[in-house]
Design goal:
The complex is a heterodimer of chains A (588) and B (542).
Chain A: E1 2-3, H1 11-21, E2 87-88, E3 92-97, E4 102-107, E5 113-117, E6 122-128, E7 133-138, E8 143-148, E9 156-161, E10 168-171, E11 177-181, E12 198-203, E13 212-217, E14 224-227, E15 233-237, E16 242-246, H2 247-253, E17 256-257, E18 259-261, E19 273-276, E20 282-286, E21 292-297, E22 303-307, H3 308-313, E23 336-339, E24 345-350, E25 355-360, H4 363-366, E26 372-375, E27 383-386, E28 392-396, E29 404-409, E30 417-420, E31 425-432, E32 439-445, H5 459-464, E33 467-474, E34 478-484, E35 488-494, E36 505-512, E37 517-524, E38 534-535, E39 540-546, E40 551-556, E41 562-567, E42 574-578, E43 586-587
Chain B: E1 2-4, H1 8-27, E2 45-47, E3 50-55, E4 60-65, E5 76-79, E6 84-89, E7 101-106, E8 120-126, E9 131-137, E10 143-146, E11 152-156, E12 172-176, E13 187-190, E14 199-204, E15 208-210, E16 213-216, E17 218-223, E18 226-231, E19 240-243, E20 254-260, E21 265-270, E22 275-283, E23 292-300, E24 305-311, E25 321-326, E26 331-336, E27 341-346, E28 353-359, E29 371-377, E30 383-388, H2 392-395, E31 400-404, E32 411-415, E33 420-424, E34 428-433, E35 438-443, E36 452-454, E37 459-462, E38 469-474, E39 480-484, E40 491-495, E41 500-505, E42 511-516, E43 526-529
Parallel strand pairs in B: 1-43
Antiparallel strand pairs in B: 2-3, 3-4, 4-5, 6-7, 7-8, 8-9, 10-11, 11-12, 12-13, 14-17, 15-16, 17-18, 18-19, 20-21, 21-22, 22-23, 24-25, 25-26, 26-27, 28-29, 29-30, 30-31, 32-33, 33-34, 34-35, 36-37, 37-38, 38-39, 40-41, 41-42, 42-43
Classes of the chains: A mainly beta (588), B mainly beta (542).
Chain lengths: 588, 542
């Protein structure tokens, strides 16, 4: 399931929306999702060095204008975010030095580097949104170090004990609590003995004097953590169901067993795809390949189900005079499910039926008639991405060589509008439009197999065999294709500077070690024009935003650590720090 | 040539006494130093008009005054601490300072059945023969490094010492030569934290403002993988040690340090690293240690950087640039330390050295002022490259000009006041005009060595070893000449302050020839022989 601010290759989504809200970092986000591991960089546990998706698109249906057989299409694709990469707070960028037992705190304005001693092997780090604080997991000492930085004084660090083998951190939106746990789905989980049901709840005080760590027992094998928007509770998704962590209760009663909310009998909770509404009242789950959705009330534990197939069947489909025969009856399967940012509704895509169903939450589970269906006849749509304002959604498929994308106005009953693209869609991310009206979407495209420089190819075939991306302005539908040397890497969006025209940009990383590509593109969100390429000295791994300095930082592949800071407004202004790990090797 | 030996009478007496001495040998009761062989250190030290010859075996120095037109074969002998190892002239901080001293490093000795132990010492010897000695303790140091102004000296041991059972390889001593030896502040022993490597080099910084305190100086000690910073203004503070080596590159072998005093930054280049390490010194609270801490950034120096220089581009006067000779990548790299941006410029040869100079160029418009440029050359390369540094990051290769040198260059003598450089090229030299960018070759019949530049007389002197000739090259007219001497030359020693050049010849009794530097000729030369034995008959007398 794709959440607008959460995992999925909406790594871009996360960064883009974070940029829009003014917070720094690569994976910290506004709605409080823990995030997962991802493919960016050689340090990634997912093992894929750097890509925006499957790259060559080998699973696509046949290209050209012939419509593929929708029933035979493979599943839609998704990606996630890596926690190990440098993170940024308001003024600082943090980079872990596991071998040295330190974290380098880099002032994004002055580039001064301060090593901060942590526990043994600091590895996983998260910043606390809106602050200059960060938490790092020390896997060698089973502790977490809370680092509090300041532009006026040296950083301070305090250690807290955490569950053994922890490799994931979730931070509440208000930054007052964090949940540290061992996510067994991460490759870094390893094969460690011990409990698979322990989490550590960290209480973070403003001045650090009353920081505390409390161990809690949750369901088996936690794999995700959500937070209520008000920061009062956390929800740990496990194989047994959702464990509810009430922070006030925990602070009062200390260690205990978290209340478990299951999704009811007859369902394999191991494979459920779960999301929690931002208000923390409900959890929505679906099983892959099935049409039934489950909504559980996290307060009462009541479970309601909704069979989307029945919702679809209840809606009369207009007859098509051009049909030559009886249309095939395809099974109703939800190929993608997305929740609106405010949690008021969920969008379910039924690829076999070319349909998008809007399900009010929780209302549709009590009264299915409140569900609203939109059909996109003649189009194969299997995925949906919702805009940050929840007024617009984009429908498309990543499973076929379809060079079109459909714009859906969620705020009205206007018919969906399909826009022609030049290449098939691999992934979509949204950014707010710089003028505050509407949205801009970044669409990465699939590359078909073959050499684009082969003699005799048409322009279309050349484009199909090339990497590239498109920018799409909504709701106007203006679209522009940019062919690139290699697949897109991580992306960061910087918000517009007030009263400065054309000041909102996307920064996109490109890396291909075989071709020697190590570049950054800056693309205007107003004109969609890409600046001259910014060359890097080392292959890029990740990108993030340092808001107060108005710079993006690009972490690069260098044995001693290398980071380049690029001014948002003037990319010619670059500063690089290299060897920041050396600063942890000073004895005085 | 005038041969100035011992006076006839004394010589006769000496010859007469020799057999008597032989008899006396068998009879014992000889005065100390009577027949001790002389073991002079390699080079005498010049103190204006005095040559100081240090006898390592005899723990003494001979002070020979060469001021007179016909100097007497006489040398004042003074005692030194035990075990002189090396001698050099103390640097003068003030050119008008007439106090001239030779610094003699003495290693001392451990006790034996016949002699008590003696501490290592650094002896400062004046022209008048006054010696003041700084006690260094029991550690026998073998390396002396002075600050440019001659105020400080640091001693450490760079080689193994097998004369002692145990040695602290990291011990060093800082001496404030402006202090009297008896002052507590004169000698400060230090043993910085070690990570398995001994000191290899030491460098003194210029005055810098660090942590808002002005006029501070640092002693930078290099070892195979570390850089140690010692605050000379606060020698009681603990040292700051930076480990540059890492798991992938355990030794960096730092060998060159440049200082940017305006930005309290130093740049370190290592023989085993492709990076230049920038140390920016920032204020830091540390009760027992230094009140500053380096923030380190690694700058790309191309492949195998072999030399570097710091310069200011007029286009960016407040932000200095590094010019790096990257031998491995056959490039000159211009590095902007503030952004780490590196601008490579491909060269026509593999570079080893960089020499900055201020001059005009033949391509300048008339009346153009001199600007900073670089001469880049490589070991055993038969060409040089001029690199104009103005706007170099934009113009890159357009600012480069190659010049064939007519022969491979083995070394170079800069004559920057003359805007010229002497290229030593095996059997010959070339005179390179930096402003005109021309090369004038001067051939020789044999390999040249001992080349000296005489700034006062605008002359170059060369003295091939084991030959009895001195060659001269007038830098103004280009004319060459020779002066024939009576004996093969071991070494040429410049005494240009008094208008002379001393040619040292091999001799157990002391033999040198003083040549007139202004009008070099055989007629005006004066040989002096026997000055080491001038008082041999007087030795041992009370």
């Amino acid at each position: 399931m794709r959440r607008t601010t959460t995992s999925g290759w909406c790594a871009w989504c996360a960064v883009l929306l974070v940029g829009a809200t003014g917070c720094g970092g690569t994976a910290s986000d506004a709605a409080g999702h823990a995030g997962g591991e991802g493919p960016f960089g050689p340090a990634s546990d997912a093992g894929v060095a750097f890509n925006g998706g499957s790259g060559a698109g080998g699973n696509l249906g046949s290209g050209g204008s012939a419509a593929p057989d929708v029933a035979s299409l493979p599943p839609e694709t998704e990606q996630t975010v890596d926690l190990q990469l440098p993170q940024a707070s308001e003024n600082f960028v943090y980079a872990t030095n596991p071998s040295a037992g330190t974290v380098s705190v880099i002032d994004a304005k002055t580039l001064q580097i301060q090593p901060v001693e942590t526990g043994d092997q600091p590895t996983y780090l998260r910043t606390l949104a809106g602050t200059d604080n960060a938490i790092v997991l020390n896997i060698g000492s089973d502790t977490a170090t809370v680092i509090r930085s300041s532009t006026t004084s040296a950083s301070k660090a305090a250690d807290l004990p955490v569950v053994s083998g922890a490799n994931a951190i979730g931070v509440a939106p208000d930054g007052k609590h964090a949940v540290v746990y061992r996510n067994s789905t991460y490759a870094s989980a390893g094969n460690r003995s011990g409990s698979f049901q322990d989490v550590s709840v960290l209480t973070l005080s403003a001045d650090g004097k009353t920081d505390a760590s409390v161990s809690m027992t949750v369901g088996f094998l936690p794999r995700d953590v959500f937070f209520a928007a008000n920061g009062k509770r956390a929800f740990v998704v496990t194989r047994d169901g959702v464990s509810v962590l009430d922070f006030a209760q925990i602070e009062k009663s200390q260690s205990g067993i978290a209340r478990l909310v299951a999704f009811g009998g007859g369902v394999d909770q191991k494979t459920l795809d779960v999301a929690v509404t931002p208000d923390g009242l409900y959890a929505l789950a679906r099983e892959e390949g099935k049409s039934v959705l489950r909504l559980v009330d996290l307060t009462t534990g009541n479970v309601k189900t909704l069979d989307v197939a029945k919702v679809y069947a209840a809606v009369p489909v207009p007859a098509d005079d051009s049909d030559a025969g009886t249309p095939a009856v395809l099974p109703v399967e939800i190929t993608d499910l997305d929740m609106l940012p405010d949690g008021s509704a969920a969008l379910a895509v039924l690829r076999n039926q070319n349909a998008l169903i809007t399900l009010p939450l929780p209302g549709a589970f009590s009264d299915a008639s409140t569900a609203k269906m939109r059909l996109v006849p003649g189009e194969i749509v299997g995925s949906v991405t919702v805009g940050p304002d929840a007024n617009t959604a984009l429908l498309y498929t990543t499973a076929a060589n379809i060079e079109r994308i459909t714009i859906v106005d969620l705020s009205s009953s206007a018919a969906p509008r399909t826009v022609a693209l030049q290449k098939a869609v691999q992934a979509v991310a949204f950014t707010p439009s710089p003028d505050g009206k509407g949205n801009v979407a970044l669409i990465t495209h699939t590359k078909l197999p073959g050499d684009p420089n082969q003699a005799g190819l048409s322009v279309d075939d050349q484009n199909d065999r090339s990497f590239g991306y498109s920018m799409l302005r909504l709701p106007e539908g203006d679209v522009k294709l940019q062919i690139t040397k290699t697949a897109l890497g991580p992306v960061a969006m910087v918000p517009a500077t007030p009263k400065v025209a054309n000041s909102s940009f996307l920064f996109i990383l490109f890396r291909d070690d075989a071709l020697g590509v190590k570049e950054v593109y800056r693309v205007s969100l107003t004109s969609f024009i890409a600046d001259p390429i910014i060359q890097l000295e080392s292959p890029p791994i990740s990108i993030g935003i340092a808001p107060s300095s108005k710079k993006v930082f690009v972490n690069q592949d260098h044995p001693d650590g290398r980071m380049t800071f690029i001014s948002w407004q003037n990319p010619d202004l670059k500063n690089t720090v290299t060897g920041f790990e050396l600063n942890s090797r000073i004895r005085d | 040539m005038h041969n100035l030996l011992l006076s006839k009478s004394r010589a006769s007496l000496f010859m007469l006494l020799l057999p008597l001495q032989a008899l006396a040998i068998g009879c014992g009761n000889q005065a100390p130093g009577f027949r001790e062989p002389v073991d002079l250190l390699d080079s005498p030290v010049v103190l204006k008009d005095t040559l100081v010859f240090v006898d390592a075996h005899g723990n003494r120095a001979f002070l020979f005054n060469a001021a007179a037109e016909k100097p007497a074969p006489d040398a004042k002998q003074i005692a030194l601490p035990f075990g002189p190892l090396s001698a050099e002239r103390r640097n003068n901080k003030d050119p008008s300072d007439t106090t001239e001293e030779a610094l003699v490093l003495c290693e001392g000795r451990r006790s034996s059945t016949t002699a008590a132990a003696e501490h290592a010492a650094l002896a400062a010897v004046t022209r008048a023969g006054v010696v003041r000695s700084y006690d260094l303790g029991t550690t026998p140091f073998d390396t002396l490094v002075q600050s440019d102004d001659g105020r400080y000296a640091v001693l450490f041991r760079s080689g193994k010492d097998e004369s002692r059972l145990l040695n602290n390889a990291n011990a060093l001593v800082v001496i404030d030569l402006d202090e009297k030896p008896t002052s507590k502040a004169a000698v400060t022993p230090k043993t910085p934290p070690s990570f398995g490597h001994r000191p290899t080099k030491a460098v003194f910084s210029p005055m810098m403002t660090i942590a808002e305190e002005k006029d501070r100086r640092l002693l930078v000690v290099l070892s195979a993988a570390e850089v140690t910073l010692i605050d000379l203004n606060h020698l009681d503070h603990r040292e700051t040690v930076v480990q540059l080596g890492g798991p992938d590159s355990p030794t960096v072998d730092p060998e060159q340090v440049l200082f940017d005093a305006a930005h309290a930054t130093l740049y370190v280049r290592g023989a085993s690293s492709n990076d230049i390490f920038a140390f920016t010194l920032e204020a830091h609270t540390n009760p027992d240690g230094n009140d500053f801490r380096p923030s380190i950034n690694q700058l790309g120096g191309g492949s195998m950087p072999r030399d570097m220089a710091l310069f200011n581009d007029p286009a960016n006067p407040t932000s200095p640039r590094l010019l790096v000779a990257a031998q491995g990548s056959q490039q000159a790299i211009v590095v902007d330390p503030s952004s780490s941006k590196a601008t490579p410029i491909t060269l026509p040869f593999f570079p080893s050295h960089v020499l900055l100079f201020d001059a005009t160029s033949p391509h300048d418009k008339s009346q153009a002022p001199a600007t900073t440029r670089a001469l880049i050359y490589g070991d055993n390369v038969a060409a040089v490259a001029f690199l104009d540094l103005a706007d170099i990051e934009n113009r890159k290769g357009r600012n480069l000009e190659e010049l064939k040198a007519g022969g491979t260059i083995s070394s170079l003598i800069p004559l920057l006041d003359e805007n010229r450089v002497v290229l030593m090229q095996g059997t010959g030299v070339s005179l390179l005009d930096l402003a005109q960018r021309t090369v004038a070759p001067v051939t020789a019949s044999t390999a040249l060595s001992n080349a000296l530049f005489d700034g006062k007389n605008k002359r170059l002197w060369v003295g091939p070893s084991d030959q009895a000739r001195i060659g001269t090259l007038d830098l103004t007219s280009g004319a060459t000449d020779e002066v024939l001497l009576d004996s093969n030359i071991t070494q040429l020693v410049p005494m240009f302050d008094i208008g002379k050049l001393a040619a040292i010849h091999t001799s157990a009794i002391g033999y040198l020839t003083l040549v007139d530097a202004k009008q070099p000729s055989r007629d005006k030369a004066a040989s002096v022989r026997g000055f080491l034995i001038a008082h041999v008959l007087d030795r041992g007398e009370p």
